[in-house]
Every structure is written in structure tokens, then in C-alpha cells.
Amino acid sequence: MTSPAVRAPHLREMKQRGEPIAVLTAYDTVTARLFDRAGVDVILVGDSVGMVMLGFSSTIPVTVDMMVHHTQAVVRGASRSLVVADMPFLAAQVSVADAVTNAGRLIQQGGAAAVKIEGGQAVLGSVQRLVDVGIPVMGHLGLQPQSVHQVGGFRRRATERADADRLLDDARALEEAGAFALVLESIPADVAAAATRMLSIPTIGIGAGPWCDGQVLVGHDMLGLSDESPPFVRKYARLAEAVSAAAAAYVGDVKQGRFPERSVAAGTAHDGK
């Protein structure tokens, strides 16, 4: 029997009954299909696609067009998981009108069921307007990769009391603006725990300790496909080594004439032509 599709309101219900939420990123149909089949609750089409799949040094070069393309691919592979698409750099920050247009493309053209926006006070107007027009929004606080130049790199956030208090204020404001869930990235576990207790919407942690309502990892990190991964990542497979070994075996078989296999009869017929 096929499990029912996960939708944005279901995540709050999961928090209420104490059911942890499992989230992974994916950027293509095959990976999305496998994660969906495995029971992943939410598939995030992250703007991390820029670093993971496209070779950029940050997420900043990722465009809305790129996100629509990869979201379409993921949606084609996911039948149960909630598909959430990242709003890339400046897609929601320039104006509320731009935010509606860009989020609308990710929903209407990309096929996503929700969008994710980085930021706190600066994006509240966009969050509220998107919710008003019927687009579910997931927030994102803590380390915000789109602000990497401003904060000086991929550094842990909310480590000072004032910064932690500001994060909690932003979390409360995002909930009041209508966000249905909140990603907390690279913050101390006690700050994440405080946010989780305070909010009625679920928190999804990444490098934020064990007390969030759910966890998210970059799919390629979890599968052991990335050359470098953050220290909090647990690798559930070592696929980089397996893929390299398989490719090397294939190269060897081709070079040595072992693939395709050559039959004596076929070889004789060829020699006689």
C-alpha cells in the first residue's frame, strides 16, 4: 500500500505527535525517486545544487531558472515526499513583488509544493505575502549560505548570546508571518533546542544538534559522494569509492578486451571478411 503524500500542514502534525521529520536534498529524478521510495518526508531542492552539482564555490551564482530546471527533475521522481524548492540569491530580497513572481515560477513551472527562503526580519514582508497568496514557505536561519560574503565564510552562527537572542526573535517573527517550518543551520544545540520549544512550527536542523523536530542533510554528503563534507555529517554509504571502483573496472575491461565479450565464432566470421 502506497503511503499518503506529505504536505506542508502534515509537518506541524508530525511535530505535535513527536514524530521526527527526515529531510534530504536532491537535484535530479533518479535520486529523488530513490529517496521518495525510502520514505524521506521532505526532499529539498537546495540551491546547494550550485556547489554539489555545478562546481560553484558558493550558492550565489544559482539562478531561478536553474532552480526551476532542477525542481522539475525532482518532482518527476517524487510521488510521496514534500518537494520544497530553495529561493536562490536575491530571489526574495529585492522586493515583495519579485518574491511572488520567483516563488510562483518555482511552484507553477517547477512543480514544487513549497519554497524555502533564507533570512529573518529582512524577508518577513515577502514571507507574509507569499503565504497570503497561497504559497507555503519554509524559513531558514543560522548559517545562511547566500550571506557567505557578508559573514566571512561558512561559519557557525548564534554562538554569542546577543546573536542567539536575535535568532530566536527572527524565528518567532517567521512563525508569525506564516512560515510552516524552519531550517536551523550550524547553530549551538541549546539555541536550536530553545527555538524548537518556543515554536509551534517544526524546526529542521543541519549541524544544529539532536533537539530539532527533524534533520536535513545534503543527499550527496549522506551518500558519501562528496569529496568534502561538514564535520556533523554522518555518511550512510561510501558511494564515491564504489563508483570510482566500478568505473575503473569498466575501463580495465574495455582496455583489455574483456567487454564486450568476444565469442570465437564471431571472431572467426570477422576474420574471414
Description:
- The chain is an alpha/beta fold and 273 residues long.
- It folds into two domains: 8-237, TIM Barrel (Alpha-Beta Barrel), CATH 3.20.20; 241-273, no CATH class.
- It has helices at residues 8-16, 29-38, 49-52, 64-77, 96-108, 124-132, 148-151, 161-177, 189-198, 219-222, 239-255, 264-271; strands at residues 21-25, 42-45, 82-86, 114-118, 137-142, 181-185, 203-206, 214-217.
- The chain has an eight-stranded parallel barrel with strand order 1-2-3-4-5-6-7-8, surrounded by seven helices.
- The relative contact order is 0.12.
Gist of the model:
The chain has helices spanning 8-16, 29-38, 49-52, 64-77, 96-108, 124-132, 148-151, 161-177, 189-198, 219-222, 239-255, 264-271, and strands at 21-25, 42-45, 82-86, 114-118, 137-142, 181-185, 203-206, 214-217.
Query: Under the CATH scheme, which architecture of the largest domain would be assigned?
Result: Alpha-Beta Barrel
Highest-level CATH class of the largest domain:
Alpha Beta
Which stretches are low in confidence, meaning pLDDT under 50 for 5 or more residues running? none
C-alpha-based Rg, rounded: 22 Å
Biggest β-sheet description: 8 strands, parallel, barrel
- Please, what is the CATH homologous superfamily of the largest domain? Phosphoenolpyruvate-binding domains
Shape: elongated
- What's the helix-strand series? HEHEHHEHEHEHHEHEEHHH
In CATH, the topology of the largest domain is named TIM Barrel
Number of extended strands = 8
Strand order of the largest sheet: 1-2-3-4-5-6-7-8
Count of the separate structural domains: 2
Please count the helical segments. Answer: 12
